[in-house]
Amino acid sequence: MTGTGAGTTDPWEEGAMLRYAIRRILLAVPLLFGLSVLSFGYVRLIPGDPITAMLGVNSNPTVVAQLRERFGLDRPLLNQYGDWLTGMVRGDLGVSFRSQMPISTIIVDRIPATLQLAGAALLVTLLIAIPAGVAAGMRPGSRLDSMITSATLFGLAVPAFFLGSLLMLLLALKLRLVPSQGYVPFADDPAQSLRLTLLPALTLGLAISPYLARLTRSAVVEVAQEPFVPFARAKGLAQRKISIGYVLRNALPSLVAALGLTIASLIAGSIVVEALFNWPGMGRLVVGAVTERDYAMVQALVLIYGALFIVVNLAGELAQGLLDPRVRLS
Amino acid sequence: MRPTTASVAVLLLVGAAALAGCSGSESGGNGAGTEITMLQPEPSQGLDPNVAAADASRIPMAMMYETLTERDADGKLVGALAEKWEASADNTTYTFTLNGKAGFSDGSPVTAEDVKFSFERMKTGDVMKGLLSTLTTVDVVDPKTVKFTLSAPSRIFPETVSRPGSAAILSKKAVEAKADYFTSPTATSGPWKLTSYIPKGSAIFEVNTSYPTPPKITKIRYTFSEDPSGHAAAIESGSGDIANIGYTDAERLKKSGGSVQVLQSDTLAPLFWGWDRTKAPFSDKNVRQAVAYAVDREGRQTACWSGTGGVTYGNILRPWDPNYVEISTYKTAARAESVSKAKALLDAAGWVEGSGGTRTAKGVAGVADGTPFKVSVPYESNWPAAGCHVQVLQQNLKDIGIEVTPEKYDPAAYWGDVAKGKFTMYHGGAGASGAADLYQNWFRTGGSLTALTTHLADPALDAKIDRALGAGSTEDAKTIFKELEQWQADELPMLVVGYQWPQVAVSKRVKNFTAPLDDDSYSLVRASVG
Amino acid sequence: MTAPAAAILVEQPRVAVRRRAPLRTVVGAALGLLVVVTILLGPWLVGKDPYAINIDNRFAGPGAAHWLGTDELGRDVASRIAHGARSTALIALGAVAIASAIAIPLGVLTGFLGGWLDLVVTRIVDLFFAIPSLLVAIGVVGLFGASLTTTVLALGLSYWPFYTRLVRSAVVGIRSRPYVDAARVLGASRLRVIRTDILTGLTPLVLVQTTVLLGFAILDEAALGFLGLGVQPPQASWGSRLAESREFMLSHPELALVASVPIVVAVFAINLLSDALRDRLDERRVS
């Protein structure tokens, strides 16, 4: 499933690409089914009744009973699961216990904010990690490599929320360059929306850069050891031409796989960063849903996170196959 | 190496340029003109005034639903949807005349029929049921006049119908049209209407043009934020305009001076310890009094509120309340004296000093001998001062041999579990508008907060409260309130030790905003952006 | 911080071209020693009660009475960090122990035996793998409520899927080596093969992986603390100290800075050491 595990089988024969893709997509179905059982079982293990938690003070028994009936909580577990699953297949994710709004609406509303932060953070990471990883990997063992490696090891030791707090203190309060937290939709006020994106994107991007830098380095090291590199150097090709034209191009398939892993870290990192900057993305939604015992919401989100993971992996593997003819031909 | 350094340099430049470009375009504003951003907790109990009693819900409800009367900046009761009102000589019937200009956000007028519908609905809801227990009928006299008949005299009925967010006037037509109306209420009577609600995100309020005195702030981005520690930074850096902030931040902002307005409200908002008086250890008045002696009220105020706010040694009412007469039962000359008094009371109650420093039971009814005096004290996890209070309590009670374990609690489940009587001792705080409101809502059987604070159900006490509320003269009322104050100081149905002193940070661009009283939106209506 | 990301630290130096200067190792060892000393002797060296509140002495600066000053309740910061080191060490070791206790037997059995057991376990691992590890941890806290014990359990349970997968693929690799085949041909029992060849072959991976996970556990403890789901106040731990002091970040940034130092130093030391350890083991394998 991970980008690194693809080498054992050999699905990349001529014309096998499409069949392979379909097979992988079909393989995702039992996984999603398993996730649905897992999340359904999980929320029912959580102590405390979701309806009384939702109503709080006024646990009026008649209202509680009405709501239990409305959400189908008075029915046998198997029926509840069946209803949920059939609804899910029809694209109906159910109703959030807490806000009583359709979950699909709630999630669709958050897609812009989630993508905006993820995209901006990914951009920051690419801008930092790829140059750093290439620089280190081109000359393994050099002083520059040593410096970059130490820096990544240090970067991996800083808690993301602390890094974010420091950036907030520095950029928002001392230098007054950007607002400290919040979100405005891009369509409402593009300038303010971008300003608000800067701090969380920088934090998340910096937090995951060490991972991608290390992955880039190892991909580059591997390619740089191939005989054509010293050959090109001997022929007097400029270093820049070698690193960009030859090494980077040859390392691209591994880099794409690395990107898949990076996006997985990004999804996890966003949980903390969204909480810190009050960013209304999926991460805040899922933490809230678990702590508020919003059954239907937890169920839907676990599935969505799982599906996201599967899609990212699949895209990474397919792109890797497309980019690397050697893999296909061998 | 050279090319990569160059590319890094280029990227840094691009980044710096982007930063500069972004920050240069506007100076910390929040979009155009009359739009502001507020940071507030998400209304965790929804937006049905009959269901939601927590501040988090009442604040947005007060923005979208108006009441018949309200309090102005000086705390004086004035008309809101009602233009004027008259009481009968014996204070048993009240006739309200509606403001002719008042309209719901869909443009339809607010009618006597809507008022009747709203009050009949309120009488069935848990929030107002207790307060309206004496309300017998609501009659429509004409489309703009409505008459309330009470079974017992009440001087404070006009005050009761001012309860922000809770005594809401709803559109009969709109509520009846939709079964799940309160998920996203439309056609509302308040100064603003809700136009968007994104759970765990934000709500958008836009001005209700049919409101009699339309607010100058036309759009409010009501951002949900459960973490007040970032609020001061948000206001300072231009991410928001109005937010409650912590005490250390308020202190810092006041010192630095200028860039942000810091307001504080003097409302009656007791901080208290609630306890389960149905079983040991707190069924024993001696134990409750021992704890009352042992808590270091001033120390706590210093530690958790930077020395601001107020403390009390017996009263609940604040010194400037017309019904206040000082009670200082638990005030002593020195801490050592408080501790020794507390220890003596615990000895008398049968909780004797043990070997490990924690007291153990010896002849306490319903408790096995040798049981250590340990209590887990929960508090709402999204309230930083609460965490501080419980830790100070832990330290204070350690001095007298009681072991307290602070327990951070899910705020969404907290008050529900309090109402269910799940906790032996718990942390609490809530607002009230005055003596009448406090004793009616906190002490009377079925009062809107009784199940969360005093857990009382005492007919004799109810009768006394009713007499205070219906008293012919303010002097008579004062005498009864004095008795009530003394009774609660001795009996300690809950332990009030101080007051909240909400600190609100407001950005410079917001003008004329004063700290809101009891969650009302009145001061926001008068505010403007300049 | 996330399970997939942990792979990076493990797989990084497949190609160690030159022998690196040992400076990083020395720095790592020195910092690591400092952390171990703090855990073992810290509370005794500081000699103060980490829970004693002194309201008249809040936010005091560093000095002879309080080496690192006092916090928002007037408690001694040095003492809270020294005592917190023990909670944090307990959490990290406990979490890694739980993850190892699940992952090593499961990975060895499935990798060695294959068959339907392998298939089923691999599917289950895939299932958990698809959920971000921090989310798994949050889910566990949702079940049992936040506390030190829950934190240990939550982190342990969020690391096992990734770890199991790693062990399994390593075992598959070792199983196909010629000497393992030879041992089996020569009639060694399965148990014997597992005990001698597989476990010996796994040792380097387990060593590296254990150190790497210790670092993740320290960071994740802090992340849970930040979300309010970690060790609960007033109990001292590094993560809870950093989360608490963050609330006063604007008025007293020095508190958060001081609180961050032990976490960063410990994890940095662990990263340096695991990097060095892996280099050494790789070199040995190559030579």
Question: What's the average pLDDT of chain A?
Answer: 82
- The tally of helices of chain A reads 13
| Largest interface: pair, residues per side | A-B, 64 and 64 residues
| SS elements, strand count of chain A | 0
Structural class by SSE content of chain A = mainly alpha
* Amino- and carboxy-terminal Cα gap of chain B: 53 Å
Roughly how much helix do the residues of chain B carry, as a percent range?
A: 25-40%
Shape verdict of chain B: globular
SSE order of chain A: HHHHHHHHHHHHH
Strand count, sense and barrel status of the largest sheet of chain A are: none
Which residues of chain A sit in consecutive blocks of at least 5 with pLDDT less than 50? 1-12
Number of strands of chain B: 22
Indicate the radius of gyration of chain B in whole angstroms: 25 Å
Which consecutive residue ranges of chain B, at least 5 long each, have pLDDT under 50? 1-32
Strand order of the largest sheet of chain B: 8-9-10-1-11-20-12
Instruction: Write down the Rg of chain A.
Output: 24 Å
How many H/I helices of chain B?
17
Return the average pLDDT of chain B rounded to an integer: 86
Fraction of residues in helix of chain A: over 70%
- Tell me the β content of chain B: 15-25%
Give a short summary of the structure.
Chain A is mostly helical. Helices cover about 75% and strands about 0% of the residues of chain A. Helices cover about 75% and strands about 0% of the residues of chain C.
Give a quick set of tags describing it:
heterotrimer; B: 530 residues; alpha+beta; disordered N terminus; C: 287 residues
Note down, in words, how this protein is organized.
The complex is a heterotrimer of chains A (330), B (530) and C (287). In chain A, 75% of the residues lie in helices and 0% in strands. By secondary structure, chain A is mainly alpha-helical. With 530 residues, chain B is an alpha+beta fold. The radius of gyration of chain B is 25 Å and the shape is globular. Chain C is built from ten helices and no strands. The longest helix of chain C is centred in the N-terminal third of the chain and has 37 residues. Classes of the chains: A mainly alpha (330), B alpha+beta (530), C mainly alpha (287). Chains in contact: A-B, A-C, B-C.
Blueprint of the fold:
The complex is a heterotrimer of chains A (330), B (530) and C (287).
Chain A: H1 16-45, H2 50-55, H3 61-70, H4 77-89, H5 103-138, H6 143-155, H7 160-174, H8 190-224, H9 228-234, H10 239-277, H11 282-291, H12 295-323, H13 325-329
Chain B: H1 2-25, E1 35-40, H2 55-64, E2 69-71, E3 77-79, E4 82-87, E5 93-98, H3 112-122, H4 126-129, E6 135-142, E7 145-150, H5 157-160, H6 172-177, E8 192-198, E9 202-207, E10 219-224, H7 231-236, E11 242-245, H8 247-256, E12 260-264, E13 270-275, H9 285-294, H10 297-305, H11 335-349, E14 351-352, E15 360-361, E16 374-380, H12 384-398, E17 403-409, H13 411-419, E18 425-429, H14 435-443, H15 459-470, H16 474-491, E19 494-499, E20 503-507, E21 510-511, H17 522-526, E22 528-529
Helix pairs in contact in B: 9-11, 10-12, 14-15, 15-16
Chain C: H1 3-11, H2 23-46, H3 77-113, H4 115-129, H5 133-144, H6 148-175, H7 178-185, H8 190-226, H9 238-246, H10 253-286
Helix pairs in contact in C: 1-6, 2-3, 2-10, 3-4, 3-6, 3-8, 3-9, 4-6, 5-6, 6-8, 7-8, 8-9, 8-10, 9-10
